[in-house]
């Protein structure tokens, strides 16, 4: 194989014969039969054979190659808008050809545009199996891929490391049998089962993919437990002091999660735990108790948040809780003045300060944390893989920090079992007392005036409101109400109220000043972009208006809605949508209208968006699963998990062969 072809195949993630075997068809075409031209129907792909009656290049309405084929039953027009001189020769008058394509109605009867064409002899036999169509890239044709895959099928030793009784229990074929059935389906294979990936051969491939993923994650889990970390025994002095000073009692779920984390921190290997809980379930308190366990032992703990607003919010909350205990909290963000920043860095470097909160500024080079024992990452899915790794590596080489990741986007069980199998998970499934349920209203943008009036009445009644917009500047492509425009319009319409504005392009101190004014009740209506999605806590705000709600993801809508309902007043979230709604937009709004439970919303989000989007695979650049689907193949996950543990324990050689077949050295990135 030449270097040029190898480079093109690398774009398809094909680097050797094993990768060719697992490069499976997207769909199949039925070239096993011919359809008389008289019987073709629009919208149904068909293969016809006939003689070229005419072949000419026409120049109007644009340059194109037009060919007429007849087979005795009728005449079909074939049309190519892009063509080469060699194609013209191939379709010379009198030549016999087979065309495969989708017919459509044309000016002179049925026609095919850009059909696949093959010159044939009279009575040339037809293929006896469906023809696979593979994912490809520019410069690599289907014929080339088929030839390479066939060569790999003949030359590779297709061993099957899976125990025969497992295959029997799950009614799965052997590996070689499954591959041959997918690359060369039998003449009697069910085309629908192949197309929908429900064929037993597809089930075998999906099971093996899930099995390898489980093995990789379990190996990561075992490797982590073999590493050293600073044991932080539960002394209880500072956590008890904090709980005693708070004006409320933690929920049962908070106490349970705090106990699980405390036990992990006392172990000599690094904790890697995900703390997930719905909006407002009290994750910050659980994280604070964990950080105090580090301080109680004389070690450092840091909390990293994805936005400046959220980081500052955490810093203020932790400072207010911990100042009475005599504990100082450093705050690091890119916007702090150089001198302030250097002072904080020196205090952390010297060990004078044991707690720090910050944005991704925490993982930048000059930050030295000599006694780092615990790293907390809030809204962990908002950080890329490399950023999470960078924070983990702030600890000393031979002593990894404990990691606590927090997420207010609850992860459905199937997702946790597949993509988070190397994490321990704690769940906050209770809301603190005093949180009021939020009512959700859907309103067409034709009724904006009524919404503005609703905002006026709420604010004149002593309450505050958010008005969220998806963009900052005018975009002709999306024709959306922008934050700046909306701010001007609302300031004019609600002249008796104080209207503020906050968005991502403001300087950090301007954003901070606007948020403080809103928290202090000096602003009645805050017009904002999604910078307020997480971490903003204003109990007096009881009305949330979200403009162009159909453009937001479900997790974002749920997060934004959670900014209200934090006080005792009844809270309402109004979702303004623009017509016409797409099918996905309609589905999303229906889910958010009918549900307030974050787990239910997360399950629907997973169904609508798919797992790659859900867990931030886009930022890591890796597809999490190529063939298996968490929705459709959920019944295979548990058997895959059980078999992974058994094979890792009892069948190390077979495990290694499977891992090489699927991952080929890419395991480290998958684990990150």
Automatic annotation (TrEMBL):
Entry keyword set: ATP-binding, DNA damage, DNA recombination, DNA repair, DNA-binding, Helicase, Hydrolase, Isomerase, Nucleotide-binding
InterPro entries: ATP-dep_DNA_helicase_RecG (IPR004609), DEAD/DEAH_box_helicase_dom (IPR011545), Helicase_ATP-bd (IPR014001), Helicase_C-like (IPR001650), NA-bd_OB-fold (IPR012340), P-loop_NTPase (IPR027417), RecG/Mfd (IPR047112), RecG_dom3_C (IPR045562)
Lipoprotein keyword on record: no
Catalytic activity: Couples ATP hydrolysis with the unwinding of duplex DNA by translocating in the 3'-5' direction; ATP + H2O = ADP + phosphate + H(+)
Signal sequence residues: none
Keyword DNA damage: yes
Domain Helicase ATP-binding: 264-428
Coiled coil spans: none
GO molecular function, one term: ATP binding
Top-level taxonomic group: Bacteria
Domain annotation Helicase C-terminal: ranges: 461-607
EC number: 5.6.2.4
Main EC class the enzyme belongs to: isomerase
BP term (GO), one: DNA repair
Recorded family membership: Belongs to the helicase family. RecG subfamily.
PANTHER family in the cross-refs: ATP-DEPENDENT DNA HELICASE HOMOLOG RECG, CHLOROPLASTIC (PTHR47964)
Function in brief: Plays a critical role in recombination and DNA repair. Helps process Holliday junction intermediates to mature products by catalyzing branch migration. Has replication fork regression activity, unwinds stalled or blocked replication forks to make a HJ that can be resolved. Has a DNA unwinding activity characteristic of a DNA helicase with 3'-5' polarity.
NCBIfam families the UniProt entry points to: PRK10917.1-1, PRK10917.1-3, PRK10917.1-4, PRK10917.2-2, recG
Name of this chain's protein: ATP-dependent DNA helicase RecG
Organism expressing this protein natively: Thauera linaloolentis (strain DSM 12138 / JCM 21573 / CCUG 41526 / CIP 105981 / IAM 15112 / NBRC 102519 / 47Lol)
């Amino acid at each position: 194989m030449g270097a040029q072809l190898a480079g093109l195949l690398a774009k398809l993630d094909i680097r050797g014969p094993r990768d060719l075997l697992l490069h499976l068809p997207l769909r199949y075409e039925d070239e096993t039969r011919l359809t008389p031209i008289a019987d073709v129907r629009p919208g149904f792909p068909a293969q016809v054979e006939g003689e070229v009656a005419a072949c000419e290049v026409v120049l109007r309405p644009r340059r194109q190659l037009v060919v007429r084929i007849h087979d005795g039953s009728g005449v079909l027009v074939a049309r190519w808008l892009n063509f080469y001189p060699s194609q013209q020769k191939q379709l010379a008058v009198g030549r016999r050809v087979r065309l495969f394509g989708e017919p459509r109605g044309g000016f002179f009867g049925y026609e095919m545009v850009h059909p696949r064409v093959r010159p044939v002899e009279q009575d040339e036999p037809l293929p006896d199996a469906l023809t696979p169509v593979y994912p490809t890239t520019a410069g690599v044709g289907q014929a080339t891929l088929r030839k390479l895959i066939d060569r790999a099928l003949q030359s590779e030793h297709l061993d099957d490391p899976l125990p025969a009784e497992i295959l029997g229990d799950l009614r799965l074929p052997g590996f070689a049998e499954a591959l041959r059935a997918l690359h060369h389906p039998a003449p009697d294979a069910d085309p629908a089962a192949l197309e929908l990936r429900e064929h037993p051969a597809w089930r075998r491939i999906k099971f093996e993919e899930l099995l390898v993923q489980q093995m990789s994650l379990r190996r990561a889990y075992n490797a982590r437990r073999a590493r050293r970390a600073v044991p932080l025994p539960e002394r209880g002095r500072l956590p008890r002091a904090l709980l005693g000073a708070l004006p409320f009692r933690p929920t049962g779920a908070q106490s349970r999660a705090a106990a699980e984390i405390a036990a992990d921190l006392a172990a000599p290997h690094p904790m890697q735990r995900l703390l997930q809980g719905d909006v407002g379930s009290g994750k910050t308190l659980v994280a604070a108790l964990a950080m105090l366990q580090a301080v109680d032992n004389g070690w450092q703990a840091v909390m990293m948040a994805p936005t400046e607003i959220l980081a500052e919010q955490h810093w203020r909350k932790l400072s207010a809780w911990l100042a009475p205990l005599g504990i100082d909290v450093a705050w690091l963000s890119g916007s702090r003045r150089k001198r302030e920043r250097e002072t904080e860095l020196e205090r952390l470097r010297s060990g004078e300060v044991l707690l720090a909160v910050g944005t991704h500024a925490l993982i930048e080079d000059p930050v030295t944390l000599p006694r780092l024992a615990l790293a907390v990452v809030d809204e962990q899915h908002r950080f890329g893989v490399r950023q999470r790794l960078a924070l983990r590596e702030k600890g000393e080489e031979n002593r990894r920090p404990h990691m606590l990741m927090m997420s207010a986007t609850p992860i459905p069980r199937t997702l946790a079992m597949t993509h988070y199998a190397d994490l321990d998970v704690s769940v906050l499934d209770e809301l603190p007392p005093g949180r009021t349920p939020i009512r959700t209203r859907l309103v067409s943008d034709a009724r904006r005036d009524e919404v503005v009036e609703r905002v006026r009445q709420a604010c004149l009644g002593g309450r505050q409101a958010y008005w969220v917009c998806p963009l900052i500047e005018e975009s002709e492509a999306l024709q959306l109400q922008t934050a700046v425009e909306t701010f001007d319009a609302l300031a004019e319409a609600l002249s008796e109220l104080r209207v503020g504005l906050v968005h991502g392009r403001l300087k950090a101190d301007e954003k901070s000043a606007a948020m403080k004014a809103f928290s202090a009740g000096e602003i009645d209506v805050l017009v904002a972009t999604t910078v307020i999605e997480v971490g903003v806590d204003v109990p007096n705000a009881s009305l949330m208006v979200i403009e162009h709600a159909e453009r937001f993801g479900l997790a974002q809508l749920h997060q934004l809605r959670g900014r209200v309902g934090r006080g005792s007043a009844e809270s309402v979230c109004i979702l303004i949508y623009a017509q016409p709604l797409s099918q996905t937009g309609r589905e999303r709004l229906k889910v958010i209208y009918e549900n307030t439970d974050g787990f239910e919303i997360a399950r629907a989000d997973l169904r609508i968006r798919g797992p790659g989007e859900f867990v931030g695979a886009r930022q890591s650049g890796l597809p999490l699963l190529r063939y298996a689907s968490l929705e459709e193949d959920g019944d295979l996950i548990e058997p895959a998990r059980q078999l992974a543990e058994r094979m890792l324990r009892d069948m190390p050689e077979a495990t290694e062969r499977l891992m090489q077949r699927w991952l080929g050295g890419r395991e480290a990135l998958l684990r990150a």
